[in-house]
Q: What sequence folds into this?
């Protein structure tokens, strides 16, 4: 199975900060990567698919980039509502695998 | 509005069985791959199983293969997960989620809509 890692595992930033989360795959997955946001007690929601395509309804402050084995999720100007855990997920293979998550807190 | 609603979770003893259901609405059910993903308390997301739009192709995680069976009834717009020989490590919230297409294809297996989840607790 393709293994996914994320860094950092947690981060704390202020409102208005630019935030970047990195996701790495154990083998090349082209641009077959998605990002999800999950708030406590809620189901995950899709933010980005195919590495850089913004899901309908997602604020434009979220963006994704990367290909091969290294990917990033960027929040251009952190908002209070962005406090959540973020997961990357590869869909190069039908045996989907997720990263361990990055918890984002607001200072 | 696309909606997925899971049901059937609860407390079951080790070795027991449970069947989860996921009722769908707001889209043409048979046109999309459906997936089960679970999340143990305080842990990350764990892919469990998936089924193609027509139901003819299924996949399972190694941890559940031979114990869990995924199926769908396209006439009832409902997805199922039959779980047998349950273990303590199967304790989790189980989510059903919808993909963007009816078939399995690299780059088209992301999950664009999720249900609210149903809690399965395996304990004596």
A:
């Amino acid at each position: 199975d393709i293994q996914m890692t994320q860094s950092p595992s947690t981060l704390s930033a202020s409102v208005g900060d630019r935030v970047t989360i990195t996701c790495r795959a154990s083998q090349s997955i082209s641009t077959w990567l998605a990002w999800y946001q999950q708030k406590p007690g809620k189901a995950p929601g899709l933010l980005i698919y195919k590495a850089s395509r913004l899901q309908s309804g997602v604020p434009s402050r979220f963006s994704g980039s990367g290909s091969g084995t290294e990917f990033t999720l960027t929040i251009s100007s952190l908002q209070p509502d962005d406090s959540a855990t973020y997961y990357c997920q590869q869909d190069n293979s039908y045996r989907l695998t997720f990263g361990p998550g990055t918890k984002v807190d607001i200072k | 509005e696309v909606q997925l609603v899971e049901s059937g979770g609860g407390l079951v003893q080790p070795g027991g069985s449970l069947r989860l259901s996921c009722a769908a609405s707001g889209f043409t059910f048979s046109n999309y791959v459906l997936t089960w993903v679970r999340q143990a308390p305080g842990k990350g997301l764990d892919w469990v199983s998936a089924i193609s739009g027509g139901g003819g192709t299924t996949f399972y995680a190694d941890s559940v293969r031979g114990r869990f069976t995924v199926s769908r009834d396209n006439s009832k717009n409902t997805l199922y997960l039959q779980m047998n020989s349950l273990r303590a490590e199967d304790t989790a919230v189980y989510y059903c989620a919808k993909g963007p297409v009816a078939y399995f294809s690299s780059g088209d297996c992301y999950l664009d809509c999720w249900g609210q989840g149903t809690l399965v607790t395996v304990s004596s």
Remarks:
- Chain A is about 0% helix and 50% strand.
- The two ends of chain A are 37 Å apart (CA to CA).
